[in-house]
Amino acid sequence: MNTSPQTSGRSQPTAPRPYMWSLPNPFRQARSVIADFLRGLADVVVTVLVGPEETAFRIHKGLLCSKSEYFRAAFEGSFRESTEKKIQLRDEDSKIFQFYAALIYTDKAALSWNEEEFDVDVCCRLYVLADRLGSENIQNIVMDVIHGRCSRLDLPIFGLGTINHVFNNTLPGSRLRAILIDVASYDMDLDNQPELVNADPEFLFEV
Question: Strand runs (DSSP E) across 64-195, as ranges?
Fold first, then answer.
C-alpha cells in the first residue's frame, strides 16, 4: 500500500529563505579586503625608481596597481614596464614618494607620522603626487590630515614654494587649491610673508 502523501497540481510551499542582509554584509566585505591585501602580498614585486638619483622602492605590484591608475596602466598594460617590472619617475621627489609608498600598505600610516616631518608642505606635495598618479584614496587620506591641521586655532602657514607647486600642478576646482585659498583669505599676512606677492597669479586673483 502506498503511504506517501498525495500530491496535487498545486506547488508545495517552500521553506523560507535564510535571513539575508539588506545591505552588503560587512564581515564579507572585510574578508574581501583582507583577501585582496593577502593576494597583493603574494604578487610579484616591482621597482619604482624615483628622482634623478633613482632611489629604488620595491612594492608589491597588486597593491600598487590597486591604489593607482597610473601604475595599473603601466604594469598591467602593453608598456615595457609590464615585462621589465620597473618604472622610472625622474621628476618626482623620493622624500615625498616614501610617504606615498607607506600609504600603499596601510591607510592609517599618516596618523602616526611626526608633524615636524609630515608638515603641511609635505602633505600638499604628497597630495599633488597622488593626484598625478591617479590615487584617489591616498588623496582623501592626505586631505583628511590637512583638514585636521586647518581646523585648529593656529592655522598652518603655507609657503610660497608650496603654493606655487600646488597651482602649477593641479587643475582649477582642486580641493587642495580651495583650502590654500581659504586659509590665505582668512589669515594671510603680507607683513610676515612679503614673498607671497610673487605667488602664482591664479592664487593671488582668488585671494
Answer: 86-89
- The tens digit of pLDDT for each residue in 58-95 reads 999 999 999 999 999 999 988 899 899 999 999 999 99
- Tens of pLDDT, residue by residue over 125-164, are 999 999 999 999 999 999 998 988 887 756 667 888 999 9
User: How far is the CA of 137 from the CAs of 11, 114, 129, 141, 201, in angstroms?
Assistant: 52, 21, 12, 6, 30
Listed residue (171, 144, 138) closest to 71, CA to CA = 138
The whole model's pTM is what? Answer: 0.74
Per the listing, cell 600609504 goes with: 103
Q: If we measure between CA atoms, which residue out of 166, 161, 195, 194 comes closest to residue 180?
A: 166
Please give the DSSP secondary-structure letter assigned to residue 120. H
